[in-house]
Structure formats: C-alpha cells, structure tokens
Design a protein that fits this description.
By secondary structure, the protein is mostly helical. The chain has one domain. The chain is built from eleven helices and four strands. A two-stranded antiparallel sheet has the order 1-2. A hairpin with a 2-residue loop joins β1 and β2. α2 crosses α9 and α5 crosses α6. The longest helix has 32 residues. The relative contact order is 0.21.
Length: 295
C-alpha cells in the first residue's frame, strides 16, 4: 500500500474526511459569529452555549415529546433563534454604542448562566442521542468506511453556509442588512425598521449555532459543557478568516478542520494547538485576517 512519510494513504484520507466533518461544524458556527460581529459589531461569546442549547433541545424534543431528529432540525433553531432575539432586545441593544468589551463580558456572563442551569438540571455526564434511522449505516468508499451521518453533516453544513452567504451577499435583504449597520439613518428613510432588522439578524446568527448543535447531537455527547470546548476554537477560526468576513468564516472553518485532522496523523501532540499557532502566524503577517479588510 502506498505510504506518505510512513503513513498509509488509507489512514491519511480517513483523517482528511473526519477533519472535514469537524471543519463543517467550525464553518457553521464561525459563520454565525461572523454575521453577528460583521453586521452588529458584537463579540458573541455565548455562541458555544447556544450551540449546546440546540443539541439539548433536540435531545429534549425526542426524550420528552417524541419529536424526531428531522423536525428538531427545524424547530430547535427557531426556538433558540427566538431566545436570541429576546437577549438582543432586552440586553445587547443597550451596549451597541459602547466598547466591544462590554458585549463580550455580557455574553460571557450569559454563557456561565446557561451552562450552570443545564448543569444543575442534567449534570455533567453526557446524554446519548441516536442518529436518525435514515442515516444509519455507512458507505464503503474503497479507502474507508464513511458513516452516512457524517457525510450528511458535511452536506447539510455546506448547503446552509452557501444559502446564508447568498442571501446576505446577493439579495436585497442582505444589502439592507449591510447598509443598516453602516448608515441606519439612511436605511430608515426607505421605511426599513432597522432595530427589528438587527434583532432578526442576531436571532439568525444564534439559530445557526443551534442548527450546528442539532447536527452535533448524534456524534457528540450532549452535555452542558460541549459548547465551551468549541467556543475558543471557533473564535480563532473567525479571527483567521477575518472578523466579519462570511467567506473567510466558511473557507477557514473547513480548511482548519482538515488541517487539524491531518495534524492528528503526522504529529498528534500538536493537534489541539495547531489552530492557535496558525492564528498567531496570520495575525503577525495579516492582522485583519485572510479575508478581512485592512483599515
């Protein structure tokens, strides 16, 4: 069997695909963060906790009400998105004219509260959540056996990322969103309710986190701390891609997932920190990020 640096091609391609699965989560989560920061100028540290709530919402829907995975894939983002709108309407709205650090501290506090509530209700042990029957089993690709559910994660994530990018960058609604963050006074003269638009934008960014949480429920233990393990990495992805850049969030999320997977093959000890090493290098060479705009 062909080898590269003593590693078989089969092992290499397996880790490549598994890294792409992680990259799909990074892409969806960082996209939500990029939308919230790019359009609302808020550093949403609560993103990981809302990701966790999406997973728990899927688990509770099945455990308490018998609602299946496919329904919760739609219901959970809507419910968590509405919860995010309440946060924006009651708390974040008062901080837009203040320094970024106030929004960061507020959302960090929200994270601690949400994690504490779920930890007191369900403890720290993980809750199992089975993949839907339609996506059970695996497909033989010749060089590896790919679980069907992991293939679905990649496909669903790419579809959502592309649809989100298209709406914001290529439609009239997206142009209103971008204009409303820069010159809300002008946009309001066209009859657009800018505060409501801002609230809906935050809700949508939060809904993306919940969507990723539902996707993650069958492959991760549903636990109150599952989001905190991803938050810092996803922030690093957004910084590398460029704060507020949608293309940067999607591309960098997928790329770093693959790099992380390959690092596990060639130098496993570095896999947990490779993202942050890349972030440090990018910030030294291009402080605005790979796709960010230099001021």
């Amino acid at each position: 069997m062909t080898e590269i640096f003593g590693i078989s091609i089969q092992v290499l391609l397996t880790q490549l695909l598994l890294g792409l699965v992680n990259g799909a989560f990074y892409a969806v989560l960082s996209l939500g963060l990029a939308i919230i920061f790019g359009l609302l100028n808020v550093i949403n540290f609560a993103h990981g906790a809302l990701f966790m709530m999406g997973a728990f919402m899927a688990w509770m829907g099945l455990e308490y009400f018998g609602i299946n995975y496919w329904a919760m894939l739609l219901i959970a983002p809507v419910i968590i998105g509405l919860f995010g709108m309440v946060i924006e309407r009651t708390l974040l709205r008062h901080l837009y004219k203040l320094d970024h650090v106030y929004g960061l501290l507020l959302t960090f506090g929200i994270t601690l509260i949400l994690e504490g509530v779920f930890r007191s209700l369900y403890g720290v042990s993980g809750q199992p959540y089975a993949a839907p029957q339609q996506l059970s089993g695996a497909t033989n690709l010749g060089f590896m056996i790919l679980p069907n559910y992991r293939a679905w994660i990649i496909i669903a994530s790419l579809m959502v990322c592309f649809a989100t990018w298209y709406v914001i960058e290529k439609t009239r609604i997206g142009s209103y969103l971008r204009a409303g963050t820069e010159r809300p006074d002008i946009v309001e003269t066209f009859g657009v309710n800018v505060p409501r638009m801002v609230m809906l934008t935050y809700g949508f960014g939060v809904a993306l986190a919940a969507f990723a949480g539902v996707l993650a429920a069958p492959v991760m233990q549903v636990t109150p701390l599952m989001g905190s393990n991803l938050t810092i990495t996803v922030f690093a992805v957004v910084v590398i891609g460029g704060m507020g850049s949608l293309v940067g969030a999607i591309f960098t999320g997928l790329l770093l997932g693959v790099i992380e997977g390959l690092t596990r093959v060639f130098y496993p000890e570095l896999s947990a920190t490779v993202v942050f090493i890349i972030m440090a290098i990018v910030l030294l060479l291009r402080p605005a990020g790979l796709f960010g705009k230099e001021k």
